[in-house]
Specification:
This protein has nine helices and four strands. The mean pLDDT is 93. The chain has a four-stranded parallel beta sheet with strand order 1-2-3-4, with helices on both faces. α2 crosses α3. It is α/β, with parallel strands linked by helices. The protein has one domain: Alpha/Beta hydrolase fold, catalytic domain (Rossmann fold), CATH 3.40.50.1820. It is globular, with a radius of gyration of 16 Å.
């Protein structure tokens, strides 16, 4: 997220780029860690906007459902598994999957008991950007329809979102795409994505 951080700083935003141990804890524990850090470092902020990537969107949804941030502004989620990921459904019981994705990754399936399904609709101003290019043909084989190698285009959608955009980008690199950076900044200003 460093390139996106620099882009936003160049466009007048104060940026807190939070790194968290996504492979060590469940979503609820990650949410508590991140909420504490955000509150501790933004005490004087009137509004806090978020740009999340992948699981980060689920963590933010958890925060907003369980112990919401009172000053949440606009949110852009990049390639979020809002409806879960079919890759998790198929691979979560393999030891290598848990080693790579951790306990939180195992919670991101598509069934009705998954974390993604239990969080409900978006209750904040949300724009979602997802990709439709994959560099992981094995994962893409497991995902129905267009996908970015981890999340299907359809699974990125969520009820209550203000806008939705599909770009030609892959899951691990979507945040480095210049057009995505521009769209993120535009949504934070306008509450919608820019259409040509």
């Amino acid at each position: 997220m460093k390139s996106l951080e620099n882009y936003l700083k160049d466009h007048g935003y104060q940026v807190l780029n939070i790194d968290y141990p996504s492979r060590k804890y469940q979503v609820s524990e990650l949410a508590n860690m991140i909420r504490k850090e955000v509150i501790g470092k933004t005490a004087d902020a009137k509004k806090i906007h978020f740009i999340t990537h992948s699981m980060g969107g689920i963590v933010l949804r958890y925060i907003q459902k369980e112990n919401s941030l009172p000053n949440l502004g606009r949110v852009v989620m990049l390639s979020p598994p809002n409806q879960g990921s079919e890759v998790v459904d198929k691979l979560k019981n393999f030891r290598l999957f848990e080693w790579i994705n951790g306990p939180a990754g195992k919670q991101l399936g598509t069934d009705k008991n998954s974390m993604c399904q239990k969080l409900g609709k978006a209750s904040f101003e949300l724009g979602v950007i997802t990709g439709d290019i994959s560099i992981n043909w094995i994962n893409s084989y497991l995902i129905p329809g267009k996908d970015d190698g981890k999340v299907s285009v359809e699974s990125a959608k969520i009820e209550g979102m203000a806008d939705f955009l599909v770009v030609h980008a892959t899951h691990p690199l979507i945040m480095n795409d210049k057009s995505v950076m521009k769209q993120c900044a535009y949504f934070l200003r306008e509450g919608t994505f820019k259409r040509n």
